[in-house]
Task: structure prediction
Amino acid sequence: MRPAGRGDTDSLYFSYPHFDAPKRDTQEQSAAVAIVGAGPIGMTAALALAKEGVASVVFDNKATFNDGSRAICVARPSYYIMEQIGALTPFIDKSLGWTTGRTFFRGQQILEFEMPDSADEKFRPMYNLQQQYIEQFLWQAANAHPLIDIRWQSEVTDIEDTDTGAKLTVRDPKGAYPFNATWVLACDGARSPLRKMRGLRLKGENFEGRYVIADVQMDHDYPTIRRALFDPTSRPGGTVLIHKQPDDIWRIDYQLEDNETTQDALREETVRATVTAVLKDINYNDPWELEWWSVYSANTLALDDYRDGCVFFVGDSAHIVPIFGVRGLNNGLADAANIGWKLGWVLNGKAGARLLDSYTPERRGATLDVFANATKSARFMTPNTHGWKLMRDAALSLALTHPFAGALANPRQMTAFTYCGSPAVLTDDPAFKGGAVVGALMPEVKLADGFLSDMLGQGFSVLCFDAALAHEIQHDALKVVYLPLSQTLIDKFAADAGTAYLIRPDMHIAGRWRTASAGDIIQGYDSVIFQKETQL
Result:
């Protein structure tokens, strides 16, 4: 919502483009992959497919980007995804990186946490960037790619299974037309029409907490630090979150009380009065402008299976997670990258169709891990029972005089999920006594001439710590990276001469050997991509 007298996309700082409907007579009516939804998840999926040389058509019923800041916190693993799909530069140029969070109870600071960061890391742990910019930068990359056809003002109204995939019914301003696709990626958000068309339902837990999001523009010199206010003067008994964004935009999320109706809370005069009180709490008394506001609630909901025949559900169409710990957008981007490279490899004939069976175990597993962590945060931020509220308030009160109790307010920031047990990774080598495990995201290392991630290939890569082994591996699909042993590599990989790591296109570790042979590595690679029916 926006202040009275301003349109839905009449922003103080962002110019929304208008996208015309496609010219029907020049458009193909079939594709190997149809993507429903041109938000961050759909465009990331399209770019991930395009990286593998696979064309896609993206449908969206809107004529511009989503309005408002919405998802704003982009985690380090997501920046690797942006780099892999060729969209990184504008993200780095515009976003605000941060490492620190501060938590206050009744005006007194009870916690300051630092997210893991070091000179070995290419990217900061977290970046703040409004969703409009996220969509704009992804659209710029997608629109420039010859393998991606984005069709705005084009709503998918029906889907039918066929012998070769699915037939979509697409409606644009000129009417309806059929569109055939071998595969369909449902990236159409939390209210996913495709999910409803397939007769599927999200399952899980609804939390009672409701939050109003308010974006304000102001000249405030506080650093880019996440602030959480518990029981502030402005919202007695409630919680307030504050984030700095580019263009002097500040995101304020505040919890609604049980006796506050959503309708009343969203009235402009109510929002203005509440924001004024919150700003007084942080000692800001200078002018500010109201930009946009909305409301959300914290839920943990997911499909039982992220695949239904030829349809894959990606992002919020597959799961809804609480924002605490900034997992919603980041979890969805990881979904898109995961299905993008796998579907691309299958369509290119580089992998067996069984590789697609690993999408749900990996990404639903990641969602359940998010639930486990985000539920703890949600219960602390928005206690859903009287008992939880008593425990939360007791911990906060204790933190006023005992610093250790403040750690209970740590939001448990998002980290990449480890795909242990996935059919697309090998059994870990028990000879290892440490180091990054199979299924984990490859650790980053600063090398003399760049970062380890810069040395990886476009497909699978092999990290070798022995020159003779590196020379012995001869396989066209494997990029062999020789790394002379150093203390950092020994610490992060538990590496020794003869050690090898097999790295997937998404930088997750597919397998590792304490003492490897070229044959072990090649056989492991064939097993992972299911070109050979090897039992894992």
Summary: Residues 28 and 492 are 49 Å apart (CA to CA). The first strand starts at residue 30 and ends at 36.
